Known about the structure:
This protein has about 100 residues and is α+β, with helices and mostly antiparallel strands. The chain has helices spanning about 5-20, 55-70, 85-95, and strands at about 25-30, 40-45, 75-80, 95-99. Helices cover about 40% and strands about 20% of the residues. It has a four-stranded mixed β-sheet with strand order 3-2-1-4, sandwiched between helices.
Amino acid sequence: MRLTVQQTRTIKQLAMQIAGEQARVRVFGSRLDDRARGGDLDLMLELPEPVANPALLAAQLSARVSRLMHGRKVDVLLAAPNLMRLPIHDVAFREGVEL
């Protein structure tokens, strides 16, 4: 995984600050390939409770992690009981690595 130990720790802390202590974060996509270079950061934020404002939650996490990553593009996918599950969720659950 092309993230430092400090970055993974901070991303997890940011997710819990924004979404609560029960939040879990997975990295998926190109950042898992140690041979690749560049690229955005794909995160899936898993929440056990329904989310009232998913767009705001995803945007907040994306912006804070992007600042941590010196402006790198960060895509945030949400998984919560009240949100539709799409094929990309299956990919993130199957291939993603939990932080």
